UniProtKB/TrEMBL annotation:
CDD domains: MFS_MefA_like (cd06173). It is found in: Cell membrane. The chain crosses the membrane at residues 82-102, 108-129, 141-160, 166-193, 282-303, 309-331, 343-361, 367-389, 410-433, 439-458. This is MFS transporter. It comes from the Bacteria. Keywords: Cell membrane, Membrane, Transmembrane, Transmembrane helix. InterPro entries: MFS (IPR011701), MFS_dom (IPR020846), MFS_trans_sf (IPR036259). It comes from Nocardia arthritidis. GO terms for cellular component: plasma membrane.
Length: 478
């Protein structure tokens, strides 16, 4: 008996192709050619593919969404862009310090220049995305423009013309384009991923985002050490070009453009106000960002001054948070399937700030204090991802295509808008109350804010809700 006949008799019974057809076809044309010609044969499940069993088994272990070409390229484009962003996050300020000898105030202004666009342009960018409609093309344009802007940094450095004002402009403009890219990506995600796979898709996208926070700055630091800050920015230029090429290779079916009318900018807020689950998420996102910023503002000072931890120990604490986020992204799908997507959002929302209670408890020997902070950051990172992924999936499921940009712009505005106030209040409370009491305020305040939304409809969501498409502008205002 031939090897092909032995294989066919060991195949699973559940197949659309008869054993006789498989046996004759495989014998006459060879198994690999036969499998290519009969795409209904799921060779990846049987462990026998074009390049042999190993490749087929590896392919069968790949998440189903990543087996879809369009989503795989979209996800890869975002992942490349995320890692490039983290390199620039390190390279721009270090370029200012090492090449231009910038002082603390100038580095602070450079950081502010990159974060201001989300406060200034988020609403307008969301409205523009809804009105223009061509999300993929706007993402490609944003990538290419960011590549061109960043390319000016090493060029002017080589020419001896680089200035701090130049870096301010580059940071502000690339930050503005990042806002447009992020809003478009949220809308394009929905065009590529089936509704039932929103949680799985968000787990992949947000998992790669937080993974970039672990590996990106490390890679950026190594590059800067090897080739200097301005030259390392070339890696981000390449990443944006690669992202643009990948996005160019997909062709999702996008929603039609909309006509702007009276109340166009405010429709995102009005929709959130009327959709109770979105309103609950909106409140939680803003409040948790606010209280976590209070905590994070004082974490370094608390760890270094009161706990006497070394720079290495503090770095391990931060790395634990990022690793926890990656683990959380892998767990979210299972958690949401077991307890429901709404309860998963609430559980994650409790764990995220609740774990931080361990920080003000930390004390005693340095190994014990560092261990408690590592546990706090790791567990908080897990909760953050469960909250973020399930919440984003609920938002995407509820929001109609015509409002996606404006709703995302509203969330972006408030998520980022509360952070400066949290930082200012954290500094003031740290001076007035002390570091440890302020950390208690931050962690307990976050938990109490979650308790306020327990009566909302979100706790009863076992599965993703249907799209809540209702009018948000009165007919008299239309």
């Amino acid at each position: 008996m031939s090897r092909n006949s032995v294989w066919t008799k060991s195949l699973p019974r559940a197949t659309d192709v008869s054993y006789l057809q498989i046996d004759r076809g495989a014998l006459s044309m060879g198994w690999s050619r036969f499998a290519r010609a009969n795409r209904s044969l799921r060779t990846e499940e049987w462990g026998i593919g074009r390049q042999g069993g190993l490749r087929a088994r590896l392919w069968s272990m790949t998440p189903p969404l990543l087996q879809q070409t369009s989503f795989r390229r979209f996800w890869t484009a975002q992942t490349i862009s995320y890692f490039g962003d983290q390199i620039t996050f390190v390279a721009l300020p270090l370029t200012a310090v090492l090449a231009l000898h910038a002082n603390a105030a100038q580095v602070g202004l450079l950081s502010a220049a990159g974060s201001l666009p989300s406060l200034i342009f988020a609403l307008h960018a969301g409205a523009f995305v809804d009105q223009f409609g061509r999300r993929r093309k706007m993402m490609i344009l944003a990538d290419l423009l960011r590549a061109a802007l960043l390319l000016t940094v090493p060029i002017t450095y080589w020419l001896g013309q680089l200035t701090i004002q130049h870096l301010y402009i580059v940071a502000f403009l690339t930050g503005s384009l990042a806002v447009v890219f992020g809003i478009c990506a949220n809308s394009l995600f929905v065009a590529l991923v089936p509704r039932d796979d929103f949680v799985r898709g968000n787990s992949l996208v947000k998992g790669s985002y937080y993974l970039s926070w672990v590996a990106g700055p490390t890679a950026g630091g190594a590059l800067i050490q090897a080739v200097s800050g301005p030259i390392s920015i070339l890696c981000d230029v390449v990443s944006f070009i690669g992202s643009a090429l990948l996005l160019r290779s997909i062709s999702p079916e996008e929603p039609p453009r909309i006509k702007a009318g009276r109340g166009h900018l405010s429709e995102g807020f009005l929709f959130i106000r009327r959709a109770s689950a979105l309103l609950a998420k909106f409140f939680i996102d803003a409040s948790l960002n606010f209280f976590y910023t209070i905590y994070f503002t004082l974490l370094f000072l608390f760890a270094a001054k009161e706990l006497r931890l070394s720079a290495l120990a503090i770095g391990l604490v931060l790395a634990a948070g990022a690793v926890g986020a990656v683990v959380g992204s892998a767990l979210t799908t299972r958690v949401s399937l077991r307890i429901g997507v709404g309860p998963a959002f609430l559980v994650g929302s409790f764990i995220y700030p609740g774990a931080l209670v361990l920080a003000p408890i930390a004390g005693g020997p340095q190994w014990l204090a560092a261990g408690l902070l590592v546990i706090a950051e790791f567990t908080s990172g897990v909760g953050l991802m469960i909250c973020d992924i399930s919440g984003s999936s609920i938002q995407q499921a509820l929001t109609p295509d015509r409002l996606r940009g404006r709703v995302q712009g509203a969330f972006m505005l408030f998520n980022n808008g509360f952070r400066p106030f949290g930082a200012l209040l954290g500094g003031a409370l740290g001076t007035w109350l002390g570091l440890r009491p302020t950390l208690w305020v931050a962690s307990i305040g976050g938990v109490l804010s979650v308790m306020l939304i327990l009566p909302s409809s979100i706790r009863r969501m076992r599965t993703l809700p249907e799209e809540a498409d209702f009018p948000v502008v009165d007919s008299a205002d239309a």
